[in-house]
Amino acid sequence: MKVTITKNESEFDCTAAWRIIGEILRKPEAVIGLSTGRTTGNLHRIVGEVYSRYPFNTSAVTFFGLDEVTNVPREYAGACYTMLKTEIIDTLGIRDENFLMLPTFSDDFRRDCIAFQEEIARRGGIDLLILGLGENGHLGFNQPQSPFDGEAWVTKMNPELEERIRRETGTPPEKELGGATLGIKNIMQARRIVLVAKGSNKAGIVKQMLDGPVTPDVPASVLQLHPDCEFLLDTASASELSEN
């Protein structure tokens, strides 16, 4: 288990960005998974800034999003598709066929989840997966008590996020919202994982993730068992770890 603690937010964002760039330089046909949220937006933009100044070959790389909000338009600013397109995909000139996403609308989400994970496998499997950390320890939309042997599925999102999305999209209460996501089994099959977390609001869950037991109560704790997972933190998020 590798823990990297950066001195400040700028170093954190640059370090994380270079994990992605380094993977592309190492393996031009790499399959790289991305996550959305407040933690990853800046690091995605830095990848784009480096590419704009010092272009590198992105023609063969495949990017995919770990998860997606269901039953909202893809054009919605909070849809993972739109966030990734805006933050990194378009800047790097990634072709549509090399940007894989779960759908926001479907008449058969189970079918589409299976097809999604099968397409990732067809391309050789996940070389690098960048994971954010939810304040309750969730990974993607795998909330506490999600099965460790679970594959891609549609599950519930946390109530606070659902309330915000309903408000922003005008989605009525009778219309179901959820989250399509790779399951924890899929996540653990990635060859290399970088879990990114920053800010004092993540300090408590970082401690549970790294110092606590491996338990479905804290889905991210399962990463303790991954053979090549780096936990990339800033000083604030690492402040409660036992070695500090």
From TrEMBL:
Q: Is Calcium included in the keywords of this UniProt record?
A: no
Entry-linked InterPro entries: Glc/Gal-6P_isomerase, Glucosamine6P_isomerase, Glucosamine6P_isomerase_CS, NagB/RpiA_transferase-like
Q: List the coiled-coil residues.
A: none
> Glucosamine/galactosamine-6-phosphate isomerase domain: from which residue to which, for each copy?
26-224
Q: Which Gene3D superfamilies match?
A: 3.40.50.1360
Quote one Gene Ontology molecular function term.
identical protein binding
Protein name, UniProt field = Glucosamine-6-phosphate deaminase
